[in-house]
Amino acid sequence: MENLQIKTFAQYKKAYKKSVKDPETFWEEIANTFTWHKKWDRTLEWDFRKPEVKWFEGGKLNITENCLDRHLEKLGNKTAIIWEPNDPDEESRYISYRQLFVKVSHFANVLKNNGIKKGDKVCIYMPMIPELAIAMLACARIGAVHSIVFAGFSSAAIARRINDSECKMLITANEVYRGSKKVNLKEICDKALEDTPSVESVIVYRRTVEPTPMKEGRDRFWFDELQKVDKDCPAEVMDAEDMLFILYTSGSTGKPKGMVHTTGGYMVGTTYTFQNVFQLEKNDVYWCTADIGWITGHSYIIYGPLAAGATTVMFEGIPSYPDYGRFWEICEKLKVTHFYTAPTAIRSLAKQPLKFVEKHDLSSLKVLGSVGEPINEEAWHWYNDNIGKGNCPVVDTWWQTETGAIMISPLAGITPTRPTFATLPLPGVQPALMDDNGEEITNLNEKAEGRLAIKFPWPSIARTIYGDHQRYKEVYFSTYENKYFTGDGSYRDATGNYRITGRVDDIVIVSGHNLGTATIENAIDEHEGVVESAVVGYPHDVKGNALYAFVILYDQTEPSDQLRKEIRDLVSSTVGPIAKPEKIQFVKSLPKTRSGKIMRRILRKIASNDTSNLGDTSTLLNPEVVDDIIGGAVITK
Ligand code: 6R9
């Protein structure tokens, strides 16, 4: 890959031009730098109208051979993963590429020994411990499809995801440490498993010594299983288009979308973007603070960094434990060079006294990254000034679960940065800014605002929604003819730099977590006192957005704080604690259009306490309710 690494802005421009003029040759050259059992037959086949995208079809490979085996000769003793525990007094773990290779192969045999074969789906619900990385790579080693569910989700959310893709196995841990708290994951899993007929076996890693109830015939301990198998596990040969994993993301309906990523294109896309955006050098230590349960963790803690032979840090804890200096303490301790986090974390740390930063030597840092939501100007400057000391390029990386890899971002130290701008598309990415009439705004020399679409496939695009190709087509390929629609609004300056302004659909990003408002409404509506509800986002200092629920009650239901608590608890148990509405207002009715649709635009304005101009309300069936709601609004500022 060395010679394909972009080092200057002129090289970026050249690579970009080539990637547009001849995308196939461009990506072939990159794909050629990986280990394949057999070269592909066709580089790209695509039709966004169907939609269908295939990259490197007929090519045979295994992604773990690219993340592990091929590094053994030169990098065998290099640290692949540094694990930093929740408790700073517990020891960090350093796992070399050779050790990781052995652990992955060994655990892959556990999967096989428990009846898992190529194509089977395995749900992983684990805390941020190395065994999570080992479990996911072990799946990939034998061609099983992992479906990782963030270990903060509720039993009901796990069950929904397991059932959607009919997972045969669940891998979990008994407990997880999260700051000063301990959460019993196994208990949450047991509850989920009451309603998941496809799961035949459960593997439990013991993170703590607490006694763990196990179900006879179904549950097995990780360590016991390892004793039964040997350590040698040749990699399953996969087609480039074979499924690598499913990862669920929120949608505009109540049902989560299982985004399907395949093997070859995903590997090429994540590795290429990792190397070029972050510009890692040989002995660098890279730390992405995301959870592996999200796409950022998949692509930029595990697959991208390991395929690139980097040292990647995994952190089990939270930024505020034992105090708000924890991130900076770890940067100092591990001599982190590349630090990649989310705006919500930056905003919450920026609120703390600077002494938490100043206590620590951050001189090892070279590059700072941001991902997950728009970064506001203040947070950008705080990050740049206090963490980067004005010396570290800040890469604001825009991408999505669906895109698999970073799409729009500066290349560290190469692309001129501009606060709050994700700047320019990476080579291979062809954005299109769309106006209100659905036409592309093509003049790159004039500033413009619109919705963001992509007009040509890139290797790591998700291929479908698991089990629902029709929905994939409707959500991403029906808004604009022959283009992928991102769901994001965007502004472009007169030099072609993009700023992502936020979601234009019914998804709200709270503390970096994507939440579909429909899922939360469904949960609220399950309360026996509730007729109907509407949930919208409103700006929040730290979380980026918070949730505001407008709830209609049955006549006989008494509005009360107790009821608010019950509604929050219900959301917490059906969706997860992160989805709890900050504000709940009981209303008589909701503003609806003549076709019966809730006019969320108006509710968003009310929730944001911005009611001076509500825009056109003439299509409302019941305009009189608007004043009633404003009169009773829980004021947010
Ligand atoms: C990687 C990830 C995707 C949505 C995306 C957008 C928002 C992500 C951003 C950003 C502004 C950035 N988003 N990165 N907005 N600037 N640098 O976060 O994937 O969880 O699927 O979320 O996040 O709205 O559409 P995912």
UniProtKB/TrEMBL annotation:
Gene3D superfamilies, per database record: 3.30.300.30, N-terminal domain of ligase-like (3.40.50.12780)
User: What is the source species?
Assistant: Salinimicrobium catena
InterPro entries named among the record's database cross-references: Ac_CoA_lig, ACAS_N, AMP-bd_C, AMP-bd_C_sf, AMP-binding_CS, AMP-dep_synth/lig_dom, ANL_N_sf
Q: What is this protein called?
A: Acetate--CoA ligase
Report domain AMP-binding enzyme C-terminal positions: 520-597
Question: In this entry, which stretches build a coiled coil?
Answer: none
Q: Where is the Acetyl-coenzyme A synthetase N-terminal domain?
A: 12-67
Instruction: Identify the residues that the record assigns to the AMP-dependent synthetase/ligase domain, covering every copy.
Output: 69-457
GO MF term (any one): AMP binding
Family recorded in the similarity comment = Belongs to the ATP-dependent AMP-binding enzyme family.
Task: Name one process (GO BP) from the record.
Answer: acetyl-CoA biosynthetic process from acetate
Q: Which UniProt keywords apply?
A: Acetylation, ATP-binding, Ligase, Nucleotide-binding
Cite the EC number.
6.2.1.1
Looking up Pfam families in the UniProt record yields:
ACAS_N, AMP-binding, AMP-binding_C
Q: Which CDD domains match?
A: ACS
